[in-house]
Design brief:
161 residues, alpha+beta, 5 helices, 10 strands, elongated
């Protein structure tokens, strides 16, 4: 399916020119539809973002939409029908979706459900403490409980490693 983009706004045309210069492309932006489609196709093919394996997740909050790198999410914590995303830069984003919806996302395949209220990025797990019913310590020092039901599963996983 071919998409056609028509630019009537002169300000947007200038912004696109700046973008093209930044990416060192010698493409002249023209307001004719066929030239714009060709220029955008070249940008998409040569853009470093299209070749990288960096995955991003669009998070819709109450007032904004935020594009978050999946690798920057340390953990997701349930708070009733809300989910708090804890990021690497120590910020927290609250989303009005239950944790179950995040656990089902294919893009979050490097995450594990360790408790009813916690979904953890396995790349940030520092150690597993077997005493006191079992808990995980993350690289940022956060200690999370592991449910009794999932405790044996985690011990087996860590013994393999």
């Amino acid at each position: 399916m071919e998409r056609i983009l028509v630019i009537d706004d002169k300000f947007f045309k200038k912004e696109l020119d700046v973008f093209l210069k930044k990416h060192k492309k010698r493409i002249k932006v023209d307001t004719r539809t066929e030239n714009i489609a060709r220029a955008l196709a070249v940008i998409c093919e040569s853009s470093p973002a299209s070749h990288s394996k960096e995955q991003r997740l669009l998070i819709n909050t109450a007032n904004t939409s935020i594009l978050v790198k999946v690798q920057d999410i340390i953990r997701c914590q349930s708070n009733r029908n809300y989910t708090e995303l804890h990021l690497q830069n120590k910020s927290k984003i609250t989303v009005s979706k239950p944790l179950k919806q995040f656990a089902q996302l294919e893009i979050l395949k490097s995450f594990a459900r360790v408790h009813l209220s916690h979904l953890v990025n396995i790349n940030y797990i520092d150690r597993f403490i077997k005493s006191d019913g079992g808990s995980l310590v993350l690289t940022n020092g956060t200690k999370l409980p592991v449910s009794k039901r999932r405790r044996d599963e985690w011990i087996k996983k860590l013994d393999i490693i």
